[in-house]
Amino acid sequence: MVCGLTSCLGSGAAGGLFSSAVQFFAATQCLVGETWPKDSVLQNGSRYDFIIVGAGTAGSALAARLSEVANFSVLLLEAGGDPPIEAIIPAFRETLKASSVDWNFTSVENNITSQALKRGIEQQPRGKMLGGTGSLNHMVYARGFPSDYHEWASIAGETWNWTNVLKYFMKTEHMTDTNIVNNPELMVYHGRGGAIEVSGTNEVMFSIKKFLQAFEELGFKTVPDMTYPNSIGAGCFSHTIRNGERDSSLRALLNNANSTSLHILKDAFVTKIIIENGTAIGIEAVKDDEKFLFYADREVILSAGTFNTPKLLMLSGVGPSEHLRSLGIDVVADLPVGSNLHDHVMVLAFLVADNGTCVSDEAENSMEAIKYLYDRTGFLAKADNMAAYLPLSSSEPTVPEFALYPTCIPQFSPFRSGCLTLGLNEDLCTELHNLNQEYELVTIAAVLLKPKSRGKVELNSINPFDDPLIYAGTFSEEQDLDHFPRLIKMAWSIADTNYFRSKNARVIKPWVEACSNLTESAWIKCMSRAMVTSAWHSVGTAAMGTVVDGDLKVLGINGLRVVDASVMPKIIRGNTNAPVVMIAEIAADLIKEHYSVSRTGTNLNNMTIGNLTASSMPNISQPNINLADVIENNDMINSSLIEVEITNVELITTTDRLSDIDDTVNVA
Ligand SMILES: Cc1cc2nc3c(=O)[nH]c(=O)nc-3n(C[C@H](O)[C@H](O)[C@H](O)COP(=O)(O)OP(=O)(O)OC[C@H]3O[C@@H](n4cnc5c(N)ncnc54)[C@H](O)[C@@H]3O)c2cc1C
């Protein structure tokens, strides 16, 4: 989340617009619309090839891709319903937090960290609706960096190496950001024509321009593409926005999926995976207070997210045996489910500055609503976010270890509500609110991208409707905290750059009782421990290498996979949504290959090459089959047939798998 703090804390423009929100929504109901997938009418006890639990970022993409296979039947269950209109209009993203479409998770208080947050707990919003957290996130497009995926590959195999994941990032992407699209050097790493639009322009808010100048003065290079793997610096993110509307895996993929093979059940709360003799055979769910059983002939796939996926596994007997036994749950597989929880670690630094520092050239009035309704332009259609990436040391200059995300908050902003949503306690919010009556506030989120600390998710009880217990584990490794004095001082140094100096910017040290009378570095550490919060990118609770294998299959259980943020063995250096889509895209291909179906959905068992059918081909069901090998090794192909067919496919067969070439061979 670190990106969208402007709106999180209530920017002037959004605040000014609030008064006309009622009329605006009335108008938008007609003018901004989306036909969401319909609820299927399903018989209790029905059978499907695949059952996917959770229609979030991963589940929406995966269901759409699997439904490309005409003879796969797919059931997708989602605990929430249709997203509200605020999930479409970019500037209204903040209104979804702490709402009925948010699971409203929180961490468990530990009396050590986050004591300056309300009740000592970290807020953990997560989307409970079609599109999941992808329907309420801030739409920042990031991928992580090659070194992240070198780590994954060393843990889970070459499927997850940078070269391969890049192919999948590009597959889903339709890059239109004008800072990138006209630059061939950058476009080497981007896709055109994929389902999800990644957009942007250089027309950014006044304050973002000033921050970019400030970071340049501080020695940061300004970069046009925050995903460029070969150099890092300060720059604006691209966003998943199409024509002024959120473009998520729900809108871009699920909404366009093949409706004949795909069945969707909304407001259906999955309570358990049915596992018999070591095989997942179905799920139990509750919809409208009625219990349903659905059966999977091939696989059950969990895409319920970092907190609910481990919960469901544990409720079903897959998890740490000691914890499960303590709750009286029969252990089906003893796996470290729920451990390895980690997230980007965020501490806010504050400056105040003269009025006019943040001045935006966006009109702060209801003209913005009219503009939006007229042609989807203006403030409401946008999400401006920037960051400055810093390496740990000059020996790895292209590997960011930290990020600074600045935000400028105009005077008299409706700051309090955003502050409380962020989780700061009443006293801090009041102090900052009072300052904002006199000054403009600059917040800089200082973020550690690769924390060593780990937390865990556990069951609260055996009641499936109870939220899981989230032990954030933040700063459980002291060395994570050690980075913050340097980071916070770097954030403060923005006050010493030309523009901000001219606006009398100065550092504010919020009052945290436990930290009084300390020297500066000690104060920063103390304050960081007290104010630290999640950056809302939690991952790792059903990690590759320990809970699932490199094909995302749950170890020791047949017919069960996990496809969502929880499989990340280590968090990537960036926001997590696009990587989760990438995981779903790879999972879809792994599944298609496993069941001998081409990546575009053709069943390879029905394929013919001349008079050669799939069943007469050796090894046709092997996932890594190469057509060149098949033809080479098959005596039944006569030479004239080889001539004809190879003319069609020769350029492809030397390098690609059979599953890539179905457009060029004769398929039934
Ligand atoms: C406030 C916020 C802002 C963010 N901003 C950004 C950003 O700008 N850019 C970025 O890259 N990342 C961002 N992220 C992170 C990113 O959105 C997530 O990492 C990503 O959406 C996770 O996808 P997922 O598929 O793992 O889980 P989700 O998208 O959360 O999907 C899980 C789905 O499963 C459903 N579900 C759960 N349990 C059950 C059950 N028992 N039965 C049925 N259904 C169930 C849920 O309702 C949900 O729809 C943000 C996250 C947050 C919280």
Write a brief caption for the model.
Belongs to the GMC oxidoreductase family. The protein has 668 residues and is an alpha+beta fold.
Topology diagram in text:
Elements: H1 5-8, H2 12-18, H3 21-31, E1 47-53, H4 57-66, E2 74-77, E3 105-106, E4 123-124, E5 140-141, H5 146-156, H6 162-172, E6 173-175, H7 184-187, E7 196-198, H8 206-217, E8 234-236, E9 238-239, E10 241-242, E11 245-246, H9 249-252, E12 262-265, E13 268-276, E14 279-287, E15 290-302, H10 305-315, E16 318-319, H11 321-326, E17 333-334, E18 345-353, H12 367-375, E19 386-391, E20 400-409, H13 415-422, H14 426-438, E21 440-448, E22 456-458, E23 469-471, H15 478-482, H16 484-492, H17 498-502, E24 506-508, H18 520-531, E25 533-534, E26 560-562, H19 577-594, E27 608-609, E28 612-613, H20 627-633, H21 639-653
Parallel strand pairs: 1-2, 1-15, 2-12, 6-7, 15-26, 16-17
Antiparallel strand pairs: 3-4, 5-9, 8-19, 10-11, 13-14, 14-15, 18-21, 18-24, 18-25, 19-20, 20-21, 22-23, 27-28
Helix pairs in contact: 4-19, 6-19, 13-14
Flavin-adenine dinucleotide binds next to helix 4, strand 13, helix 10 and helix 19.
Cofactor: FAD
Protein name: Ecdysone oxidase
Family: Belongs to the GMC oxidoreductase family.
